[in-house]
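Pilot study result, target chain (199 residues):
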Amino acid sequence: MPTIKNNIRTATPMEKNKARAIAFSTFVVVLMLTVAITVTTVSLTGKKPKQPPAEVSTAIVFGVPITDYTSILKNCSMTELQFNETMNRWESHKSVDIEAPLGTPVLATFAGTVTSVNDHTMYGRQITIEHRDGLKTVYSNLDRNVNVSQGDRVEKGQQIGKVGQTGSVEFTDTPHLRVEVYKNGKRVDPNDYIDFSTK
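Predicted structure:
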């Protein structure tokens, strides 16, 4: 019987190089056409291709609760003792007391929900606002007539009350607002969250 010969042959190195060159040339042509079409579209429509939206910062930035206060009557001191004239004793002062005339508007430092409006035996009329990220602000020594109730949603800069003189623990001091900040239930220095120099 006659022998059947295999007609399949392997491509030579020269033919392989030629095929690679053709494939690369085709890729370059397609790439150049894509760029040309994009440039033409922008020049004709005047529109640039859509970009992803810029990332919006969600960091909490507290505002100052009184926009035009007289001075910082007492600053926060978590461990250092300050003298309390009303109680005639030395004590730490874990809040910031902002001196301002009676009736001065008090503003929410950030958006949140009013969780309580009460009369504290030592600090007088008091409003507590829960914010997000475990933050809470407490405003004390307010006038008894306030602008919010428990459960109200407030926005940053919204008036919640007025400076009063209802606290018994610092009654001999000039009228002021007492501000406290809590993080995850722990009292922290309000200066870490509020820039009082931007009044």
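One observation from the pilot: The CA atoms of residues 36 and 126 lie 67 Å apart. A full batch analysis is planned for the follow-on phase.
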